[in-house]
Write a structure and sequence with these properties.
single chain, 264 residues, alpha+beta, Endonuclease, Chain A, 2 domains, eight-stranded mixed beta sheet, 31% strand
Length: 264
């Protein structure tokens, strides 16, 4: 089965902001030394059925925690509870999806267009590596890589060959995945060759630098579910697209530039 090429219009719409945001905070004197800056933001137009985001700082942690889809009714109970700490521990702490530190939208304002026509190659499963290798081979100036997992030696060698012929190659990779023995070998190969490698640390037990994309010559992007691993190549169900567009490449490069480690 061969990769599919097609021409399509890539439409991107931003997430609509809540129309009537309201923020409530605990009254002065109701916070404690380990529950600080407690606030609840929700869409006031939804009335008593609203859900919102509960944000707070735990102890001396400056980054803060945010809980999502918390019912307004629960916030009212929390605000009225005699023991805020006990209520938080029993009714909130492990009950709702949460994130640590700032949201990505606070760190990177996606410069997305409403519509862009792009030339696309689509690939699936075992086809994916061939598309990646072809894009690397055709590159003449630069390759910027954001990798969640990277253990595939064949792709690494193609990037080393591109570097040797004068292509600027740079890699950013998730810190936890970089500890894999296969990834450690590839990182060592890149560093020995002089290819810059940046390890991205994220704050939170389940947070990750989860991107999988490469930007080629500021003219195209390869991206999809496909990690640069043998597991992805021979076992997983995967997809990948090669987007040929200067505009899309610029967007992905700006996103790549914005990828930095969280303050720990």
């Amino acid at each position: 089965m061969k990769a599919i090429r097609l021409l399509l219009a890539l439409a991107v719409a931003g997430t609509a902001a809540w129309a009537e945001m309201r923020t409530e905070r605990l009254a002065e004197g109701e916070e404690s030394s380990w529950l600080r800056n407690v606030a609840f933001a929700y869409d006031d137009a939804e009335g008593e059925a609203a859900v919102g985001e509960l944000s707070l700082n735990l102890g001396n942690d400056p980054l803060g925690v945010k809980y999502y889809d918390v019912p307004l009714a629960l916030w009212r109970e929390f605000a009225a509870a005699e023991s805020k700490g006990k209520f938080y521990g029993e009714r909130i702490r492990e009950k709702y999806e949460r994130t640590y530190g700032p949201e990505r939208e606070e760190m990177f304002d996606s410069p997305l267009p409403t519509e862009e026509k792009v030339d696309v190659s689509a690939a699936f499963n075992e086809e994916c590596e061939g598309v990646v290798l072809r894009a690397i081979e055709q590159s003449r100036h630069s390759i910027y890589i954001a990798a969640y997992a990277f253990t595939r030696t064949r792709i690494a060698k193609a990037l080393l060959e591109a570097h040797e012929r004068g292509v600027r190659v740079e890699l950013k990779m998730d810190a936890d995945q970089a500890k894999h023995p296969g990834a450690e070998r590839i990182i060592a190969m890149f560093q020995k060759a002089g290819i810059p490698v940046t390890i991205i640390h994220t704050h939170g037990d389940y947070a990750a630098m989860h991107n999988k994309f490469m930007v080629f010559d500021m003219r195209g992007v390869v991206t999809g579910s496909y990690n640069y691993t043998t597991q992805a190549q021979v076992v997983n169900w995967e997809n990948l697209v090669w987007l040929r567009s200067d505009v899309v490449a610029e967007l992905y490069k700006r996103a790549w530039d914005a990828i930095v480690s969280d303050e720990m």
